Amino acid sequence: MSTTIGDLVDRTFREYLEPMDDIVSYTTLSTGINTTDTSVVFNGDLLSVEEEDALDAGAIIEIGQELMICTDLNAVTNTITVTRGARGTTAATHTAGDLIKIAPPFPRKVVFDAVKDQINNLFPTLFAVETQSVQNSNRYTLLGTYDSPGTNNYLVSVLKAISQFTDFSAGSDQTGVVFNSVSVQMIQLPNPFTYVDDTATERTITYTSGPNYVNALQFYNIDQGHTCYVTFKKKFIEPTAETDTLATIGLEDEYEPIIMAGVAAQMMSGRDIPTATADYITDQLAVSNFPVGSANSIRNSLLQYQQLLITQARKYLRAKYPEAVEINGVNAGVQ
Description:
Elements: H1 5-17, E1 26-28, E2 39-41, H2 49-53, E3 60-63, E4 66-74, E5 79-86, E6 99-102, H3 108-122, E7 128-135, E8 141-142, E9 155-163, E10 166-169, E11 172-174, E12 180-181, E13 183-190, E14 193-196, E15 202-205, E16 213-220, E17 227-234, H4 246-249, H5 256-268, H6 275-287, H7 298-320, E18 326-327, E19 330-331
Antiparallel strand pairs: 1-6, 2-5, 3-4, 3-6, 4-5, 7-17, 8-16, 9-12, 9-17, 10-11, 13-16, 14-15, 18-19
């Protein structure tokens, strides 16, 4: 299983886009480069004469997520003169030993963007889940603080709320080992939202990315100052870098095959797929007990396979986290 978005990108290449018998010509970077260097020194021992000739003027190479256009080749010193940040990519720092791909059919930046698209498309069919410990206040309780808003604007609704502290009768507040359901309502406030805190200081909580609202909770039948454990339905957070972890995004392990199948289908839309790649994907789907029929295209088969995985994941998610019962917009805590 993957830990980061970069791992997921690598797994997509390994399982769908780059069969071992049809791998893209590659070498490695001999010395590191910064964002302004235009000379790339490569390891010539990993290339045939024909592959090295392919690095001449006009060729496109890839290091990490950056594409570069070759403008000159010195085959004696194994040095390429390049134009940095080609085709909408950004010049980045690369270290010795980094992989150099020659004319990649599926650029890594494109695959990374496709992973982001697939993650965004999972909601609302699938969703992330987050449980927070929230202390009830006498009015509304903001989720996040002005100096550390977090990703609470991605929260969608309350699935359940429980507490050991519950008012069983007027003036009687009891606690024990048993957790009881708490009635709670999630409200959306404008972004940015200005309020006065408990020290009479005016504060403003602002979200600069993601959904354009601030979330707060209003509790019922529980006294002020008590702790509640609230489980939320949450949108997946869009990744911004390959180092982002799947846990931070909100992805479960079982969502990885869904994303990979969708990325592979997205990459192959409108393309002539090499025979080796088509055969490789067909074999991969067969291993997953989803054989590709002769009447189906590779892309359509991938989309059908993805929908099957989504349906299975959705059944599990709905069974584990059923929608809470709401009465006049208030979560009654009934499961």
